[in-house]
Every structure is written in structure tokens, then in C-alpha cells.
Design goal:
Layout (H helix, E strand, L loop, with lengths): L1 H10 L4 H11 L5 H11 L4 H4 L6 H5 L19 H4 L4 E4 H8 L5 E2 H14 L4 E6 L12 E2 L2 H8 L3 E4 L1 E4 L2 E4 L2 H12 L2 E3 L5 H6 L1 H10 E2 L2 E2 L4 E2 L12 H4 L41 H10 L4 H10 L2
Parallel strand pairs: 1-3, 1-8, 2-4, 3-5, 8-9
Antiparallel strand pairs: 6-7, 10-11
Helix pairs in contact: 1-2, 2-3, 7-8
């Protein structure tokens, strides 16, 4: 206990002699708050502050740090901010495995590919739901490939088995799709599946909206997990914004007018005209009307009257 207190106050920057004096006077069983008050009363200062007579406000906050610059946490930027800004991922394990196995084999390698893809993007909350009976040895009517991957993902707390049991020789399986949608809805996450869950949409109107807006479909191309770049269609959000809690809106870029200087739309043209930045954008007809309304000079009016019959 004595050594732990010594290490604690040494990390704060106090000298060992001052710490030993205070511990001898207060006793080794003294609380850390009492020791700190006694050090302050004695006038002892951390070594980092003694070397800097006029420290800035930020350095006073981070006086116990070893580096001269304040850490990310003191500036309000935590290392986990990037992972917290991403949505939780809930994977339909049966759907992904059967898709990778060409709907003939339950391929566990497909689940691993999907998990690795989201890990590389920085997602920390990844859950895969698979029925419990997939733990059983494979049979001819339900072949399983790379079954050891399920055990590894279970050890990593990524894979979750939905309950099932046998009653009088018949297997009773709980509906794993309800687990998937419920967990994704409660965590405000994303469902990774090619299933539309139409029965669950009709069951709960809130789930209907959630499934329509948070369902991420995918494809396997040569053992490569590939979700679409536009999960909600051509005019929807990008994949990055779809997987992020705080979507980043793209900057509005003006498209140059295909007609250029020959454009006759004037201020009604929706395209960008760099040559009209410092002039009024009038249409050709409006410019002609404006010229007609301008009165002529007195001399020119007399000449115009003489020339007219």
C-alpha cells in the first residue's frame, strides 16, 4: 500500500522526499486525499510546474501527463470517438452463410468475411445471430463448412446462438429473425441481410419503418463481401453516411452550363456561369426590352424625326 501511494504521487509529479515526509507524519494508512492536502499545505509543487513559472491553463489541467502537450481526452477528443460515431452492426448469420455457400452449404467463412469487413471500417459493436442447432455435427440435408469459425467468433463475444431444443425427438427452434430485428432496433443499428422480414414488418409498424431504412443488403464476389454504395437507392445516402450516426453532407457543387456564353436563359438558368459573376444575369429578351426603354439624346431625336417620312 505504501509503495502504491508513492507511485501514485510520483506520477503526479511530486518529489519522493516530500511524499515520504507526509507519509511519516500522517502514517502509512492515510488516505490519498489527506496526503494530497498535506502536500499542498507544505507548499510542495509538481516538478513539471516548478520548471514552468507561468504555465498556461491547458498545462495546469494535464500536469500529471508525461508529455508537454495535453492529451486527446483533455481536449474533448477521445480515441473511441471514431467507433462511437459508427452504428452497431447486427448480422443475420444464417442468411450470410447460406448466401456464401450458394444456398447449398452453410458456409461459416462467409460470416467471417462480413465481420472482418466491418472491423476494418472501425465498427466495434458487431453481433452475429445463428440458431443453436448449427452447433450440432453436419448432416447430409444440412451441410456446414468451416464450423470451427463459429466457435472462434463465440469466444470473441461476437456470435450469439438463438435458443433451440428437442421435444420428443422434434427440434423446437426459436425465431432468430425476431432476435435480429429487436436487437438492431434497440441499439439503433444496421441489419445486414438479404431478407426483407416481411412477416415482422406486418407485425410491428415501428419495425416496418426500421427495416425499410436500416436494412443493408450485400453480395459475395469471389470471396469478397460487397455491400452496395447506395443502400437506399440511387437518391439515398452513401454507404458511409448509412453506417454513420452523424452523416456528412456533401458540399454543393455547381455544374457549369453546357451552353456557356450562348445561354439565353439569363437569371433563370440553373447552371453555373463564371462570366456572369459581376454582371446582372438577364435574359436576352429582358436586355432588349431594357435597351428600348432607354431615352435617346436630344440631337439624335431631331435626326430621327427628319429621317422619318
Amino acid at each position: 500500500v505504501h509503495q502504491s501511494k508513492m507511485d501514485f504521487f510520483c506520477k503526479l509529479g511530486y518529489g519522493k522526499q516530500d511524499i515520504c515526509k507526509v507519509l511519516e507524519s500522517l502514517g502509512r494508512e492515510a488516505l490519498e486525499d489527506d496526503v494530497l492536502k498535506e502536500l499542498i499545505r507544505m507548499g510542495s509543487k509538481p516538478q513539471a510546474l516548478e520548471s514552468q513559472p507561468q504555465p498556461s491553463q491547458l498545462k495546469l489541467v494535464a500536469r500529471g501527463s508525461c508529455s508537454t502537450t495535453p492529451g486527446l481526452k483533455w481536449l474533448g477528443k477521445d480515441e473511441s470517438d471514431s467507433s462511437n460515431s459508427l452504428r452497431p452492426i447486427v448480422i443475420d448469420g444464417s442468411n450470410v452463410a447460406m448466401s456464401h455457400g450458394n444456398k447449398e452449404v452453410f458456409s461459416c467463412w462467409g460470416i467471417q468475411l462480413a465481420v472482418d469487413w466491418f472491423r476494418e471500417r472501425g465498427h466495434t459493436y458487431i453481433k452475429v445471430f445463428v440458431p443453436l442447432w448449427r452447433k450440432e455435427p453436419p448432416r447430409q440435408d444440412s451441410p456446414i463448412a468451416d464450423q470451427h469459425i463459429l466457435e472462434e467468433l463465440e469466444r470473441q463475444s461476437i456470435l450469439i446462438y438463438t435458443p433451440s431444443r428437442k421435444v420428443k425427438g422434434k427440434r423446437v427452434v426459436c425465431y432468430d429473425d425476431r432476435y435480429i430485428v429487436k436487437v438492431a432496433y434497440e441499439t439503433d443499428g444496421v441489419i445486414v441481410s438479404n431478407d426483407h422480414y416481411r412477416d415482422l414488418q406486418n407485425e410491428n409498424p415501428e419495425w416496418k419503418w426500421f427495416i425499410e431504412q436500416r436494412l443493408l443488403m450485400y453480395s459475395f464476389v469471389s470471396n469478397r463481401f460487397m455491400p452496395p454504395d447506395d443502400p437506399l437507392g440511387r437518391h439515398g445516402p452513401t454507404l458511409s453516411n448509412f453506417l454513420s450516426k452523424k452523416p456528412v453532407l456533401p458540399e454543393k457543387k455547381w455544374q457549369p452550363c453546357p451552353y456557356g456564353k450562348k445561354c439565353t436563359y439569363g437569371n433563370k438558368c440553373k447552371f453555373y456561369h463564371p462570366e456572369r459573376l459581376h454582371q446582372a444575369q438577364l435574359s436576352v429578351a429582358d436586355e432588349l426590352r431594357a435597351k428600348i426603354k432607354v431615352p435617346l439624346a436630344p440631337g439624335k431625336e431631331e435626326e430621327r424625326c427628319r429621317c422619318s417620312p
